[in-house]
Amino acid sequence: MSTKKKILFVDDDARILDGLKRALRNERRQWDMSFVLSSEQGLELMAQDSFDALVTDMRMPGINGVQLLSEVSRLYPNMVRFILSGYSNEDMTMSSVKLAHQFFTKPCDIKLLKDALTRALSLRELLDDSRLQSLVSGTVALPSLPDIYVEIVEKINSPNVSVKAVGNSIAKDPAITAKTLQLVNSAFFGFGRHISTPGEAATLLGLDTIKHLVLSVGLFSQFGKNSAKLSGLSLRELADHSIRVGLLAKRIAESEQVDVDMLDECYLSGFMHDIGKLVLAYNMPKEYGQVHALAQGGTNFYRAEMEVLGTHHGAVGAYLLGLWGFSDAVMETVAFHHKPELSQGTVFAPLTAVHVADALDSSYPGQDNRHISMEYLSGLGLEHRVATWESIYADVDLSQEQAV
After folding, report:
1. DSSP, residue by residue, 49-117
2. How many helices (DSSP H) and strands (DSSP E) are in the chain?
3. What is the distance between the alpha carbons of residues 24 and 32, in angstroms, rounded to a whole number?
4. Burial class of residue 224, CB neighbours in 10 A (0-12, 13-18, 19+)
5. For 228-400, CATH number?
6. What's the pLDDT at 141?
7. Which among 326, 328, 55 is positioned nearest to 185, based on CA atoms?
8. Which DSSP string do the residues of 118-168 spell out, in sequence order?
9. What is the pLDDT of residue 330?
10. Which end of the chain is more exposed for a tag (fewer CB within 10 A), N or C?
């Protein structure tokens, strides 16, 4: 049986498809690639065979790219879905935000596309449960804090609001931050560098795009006031904990005198480290309720997840963020923040800072006696730094600091 990954390319321009065939011919050893000229042909092929990934144009006659993505996400939710388009209509682009995992523009850097496909297709090693793969791949929305959502809406509807003020509000909510960063880091906007702070993301996207993202797409508003609790998960407590871990991870990294880029990744990784809980609690409320019941009965939360779900929120969160194009450092941190010794790291990294910060934040309810992995730190030669990091936590009032 072939182990090749199957990728379907759909574009009504034969020249584009011919160019992709030529550019990707060296990938035929690892990929089984099909190229069709219409969405209708693509859907026919998908009905006959299973594909791992779809790369589609946006503007096509008949069934357009957005409509195709909608059908694919409904019928084949575990497929990786990329848009490759030269069409930049903002309304259509915003419509695709709910459906596509990543966005690329024509002409496309073929190495960028190839690397993104390779990375996305390799993510399945994190989750070996096809049901969970489909659940995460099909995730188009995450529950956000109702008061923060209202705050953002009020700001973007205000005639005198600054982009910075909107960015500060986005930075309070993990779900809205994740979706904003997914969009800003897509090749569609072509900024050419990785953006890791919601404030900078808001500045680069601008108020009009943020307004489209928050109001028009319908990613967050549908959760309403009842989203404060999900299967025992408090969005407020989770968001506050995420901010504290991000800030503390950044302070820990500062004590190690790392470069500015790593400081930003430490904060972002800390802020995103529990996003898998949002995915699970919203999509599997009954099962996640069982997880919380076990945890309240004294079972370690990580073990409770493994017992009920066969996986944990770190793997789920990393899978989602990897599909959305977040950096390897963020993905690794989210995946292994509970078990850093399972990583391949040999030096101080965002994983180090976030693992320690998460263990130290004892004010988070249900912290279930997490501890710092001395096995992991000894492997890095950093066990002697624990006392310094504990003193940072003791001396800093994280509630008074501001997120980036």
Report:
1. S--SEEEE-SS-SSS-HHHHHHHHHHH-TTSEEEEEES---HHHHHHHTTT-SEEEESS--HHHHHHHH
2. 20, 7
3. 11
4. exposed
5. 1.10.3210.10
6. 73
7. 326
8. HHHHHGGGT---HHHHHHHHT-------HHHHHHHHHHHTSTT--HHHHHH
9. 94
10. N
Please tell me the predicted confidence (pLDDT) of residue 90: 63
C-alpha–C-alpha distance, residues 203 and 195, integer Å = 11
For the chain, give every domain's residue range. 5-125, 146-223, 228-400
Closest CA to 235 of 284, 205, 178, 278: 278
The CA-atom distances, in angstroms, between 248 and each of 214, 269, 332, 391 are 29, 11, 18, 11
Measured at the CA of 372, the angle between CA 368 and CA 374, to 5 degrees, comes to: 140
Instruction: Single out the residue of 21, 28, 37, 25 nearest to residue 6, CA to CA.
Output: 28
E strand map for 217-296: 229-230, 233-234
Instruction: Calculate ∠ Cα 351-113-273, nearest 5°.
Output: 20
Distance CA 230, CA 243 (A): 19
Whether residue 321 contacts residue 311, with contact meaning beta carbons closer than 8 Å, is answered with no
Start-to-end CA span in the chain (Å): 49
- Both tokens of residue 160? 């005198």
Residue 20 phi/psi, 5° resolution? -65, -40
CB distance 82 to 104 below 8 Å: yes
**pLDDT on residue 221:** 47
Between strands 5-10 and 31-36, the pairing is: parallel
CA distance linking residue 336 with residue 273, whole number of Å: 9
| Chain-centroid distance, C-alpha 61 | 32
pTM: 0.87
CATH architecture assignment, domain 5-125 = 3-Layer(aba) Sandwich (3.40)
- 194 touches 185 (CB < 8 A): yes
> Which structure tokens are listed for 39?
């969405």
Low-confidence ranges of the chain (pLDDT < 50): 1, 221-222, 224-228, 404
**CA angle, 326 as apex, 25 and 341 as ends, to 5°?**
105
The residue among 5, 101, 8 whose CA lies nearest residue 48 is 8
